[in-house]
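B., you asked whether I could sanity-check this one before it goes into the benchmark set. Here's the sequence:
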Amino acid sequence: MIRVSTEGPRQAAVQSPLGPVPFLHEVSHGAQVFRRLSDAFCLRRGVCSRRSSVRQERWAGPPRPGIDRFAAQIEPEVIACRRQIHEHPELSNREVETGKLVAERLGKLGIAVKTGVAHTGVVGILKGGKPGPVVALRADMDALPVTEEVDVPFASKVRTTYDGKEVGVMHACGHDAHTAILLGVAEVLSRLKAELPGTVEFVFQPAEEGPPAGEEGGARLMIKEGIFHDPKPEAISVCT
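And here's what the prediction gave me:
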């Protein structure tokens, strides 16, 4: 989707104008992930003996066409969000504004939000209206020390200091899309809150590319700080 030509360590130039990302498909798929995991846990616990029974008795929410309809409705919003994040990238452990954007959007959806996790990470908890498992959905937020060379309206012009050198900053690894897609999934599932069998934990991870030298960060620090203690997810789906 985004092709990068390597010109040395962490140096790259995007060769396509950040072509179309299938946001409608990805948002719908993310919501379906929760549905399938919820079904699987009901089956494993012996709630029903057959998967067809699981779907009938444990997932009473809208069928896939309903989820697809919600995803289609918010697709323009997800695309705009992705472009906003792309235009304002932040390096590992420095995702301050990205974290604020995520927390604000989750809060508007009525999702309980915890900020400052592993420095700049955000965790959102959506409790469904029906009993069921806890499922975590995760996306990464950090960008790379890469100079963008594509002339599009939302191209990054950000520059900063990295490892003692002045560098450009760019979402050259798709984390802008990951974050926007998971926010879209959060909106779709929040609309289905009353019918959700279980709890969804939305994890927006900083420093996936690795924290700066001498700093802690990323998934290791989020886990160290106890993001999976309460609630404790039975499955985690990673947006990659």
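One thing to flag: Residues 64-87 form the longest helix (24 residues). Otherwise nothing jumped out at me.
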